[in-house]
Write a structure and sequence with these properties.
7 helices; Helix Hairpins; 3-stranded mixed sheet; 4-stranded mixed sheet; HSP40/DNAj peptide-binding domain; 15 strands; alpha+beta; 26% helix; single chain
Length: 349
């Protein structure tokens, strides 16, 4: 695990300070220790967390100066609403192509979070105290008919029948909830697999941070050409022109790094490209790419193709052609002559 991947594993930027690294490590240990987390991923995640911490510590902590904080274990969230506690992680999916996952990428995440308004505890109004001025504390007001005649009593809209003076919450405009948009960029380390869980510290966002950390579940998109094996082998099946395959021509084939040339051989259908597969682990060496070619021939030959094939057949079996074909032809003729001689002797007898 490289240093950059170690920081990403802890949900930190590459210039995170020693204090931030230790705080992130303690927080993740508390969350993923197998004694506290019964999920099947807990042991493997705990191993990666410890490995990342050791990698950073052995490489030396960055020396970026940091502002003093009152709490050494939880960095302050300056953009967090006053009095609003940190919430449970936000769970999201991040969809990646095989190319993005193999090389690593930067993903921009945007979202909206709706939560109860802290100013009114989700009620939509704030109690001022004293009797409601509109109903005099009774909680009800007289209804008036269309002609202005008394028509019974109805609930006071100003105090919602409570009789106590209140006002619409100015923070949420009476909705009882507040919605906040967030945006942050997340660096995906190379070599992630489908189903991997990545922890992102939301407080690292420079602007419009989310109200909580993010847990990103990796989803690898289906690829039009490649199939990925567990060991990092990338498999690809390619139809090729049958005549080009016979003639040992060169084709262009896709790899995760782009197109590359491949020399065809008519005695081979499978080719292995060293180091052109998928990373065997996060930041690890890449596996191989296995290419299987499927020669394709016309279902029906044109007249020109028939003529050309007849010429090829003649040259292959004639003078200057393949000795194996000529030897077979000689043996076949000798065998046929032997049959004729036997038939003649039988007829004479």
């Amino acid at each position: 695990m490289g240093t950059d991947n170690a920081f990403a594993e802890l949900g930190l930027a590459a210039d995170a300070t020693e204090r931030e690294v230790k705080a992130a490590w303690r927080r993740l240990v508390s969350q993923w220790h197998p004694d506290r987390n019964s999920s099947v991923d807990a042991v493997a995640r705990m191993q990666r967390i410890n490995q990342a911490f050791e990698e950073i510590r052995n490489a030396g902590f960055p020396t970026r100066p940091e502002p003093a904080r009152a709490d050494d274990t939880e960095p302050a969230a300056a953009a967090q609403d006053a009095g609003e506690p940190r919430r449970r992680p936000i769970h999201r999916k991040v969809k990646l192509t095989l190319e993005e996952a193999a090389a690593g990428s930067i993903k921009s995440l945007r979202g909206r979070m709706t939560h109860a308004c802290a100013a009114c505890d989700g009620a939509g109004h704030q109690v001022l105290g004293g009797n409601c001025a509109q109903c005099g504390g009774s909680g009800a007001v007289a209804k008036r008919s269309f002609f202005g005649w008394p028509g019974g009593m109805s609930e006071c809209e100003a105090c919602h029948g409570g009789g106590i003076a209140q006002r619409t919450c100015p923070d949420c405009d009476g909705a009882g909830t507040r919605t906040r948009a967030y945006q942050l960029k997340v660096r995906i380390p190379p070599g992630v697999r489908h189903g991997d869980l990545l922890h992102v510290d939301g407080r690292r966002a420079r602007a419009n941070p989310p109200p909580a950390d993010l847990e990103l579940r990796v989803e690898l998109l289906a690829h039009p050409f490649f199939e990925l094996d567990a060991d990092g082998t990338l498999r690809c099946e390619i139809p090729v022109d049958g005549f080009a395959w016979i003639a040992h021509r060169t084709i262009q084939l896709p790899t995760l790094s782009g197109l590359r040339s491949l020399d065809l051989h008519r005695d081979r259908l499978t080719y292995r490209l060293q180091g052109e597969g998928y990373p065997t682990g996060r930041g690890g060496a890449r596996g191989d790419q296995v290419v299987t070619v499927k020669p394709v021939f016309p279902e029906r030959l044109s007249a020109d193709q028939e003529i050309l094939l007849d010429q090829l057949i003649a040259t292959a079996s004639g003078q200057g052609g393949d000795e194996r074909l000529r030897a077979w032809s000689r043996g076949l003729r000798a065998w046929e002559r032997g049959l004729d001689a036997r038939d003649r002797r039988a007829a004479q007898d």
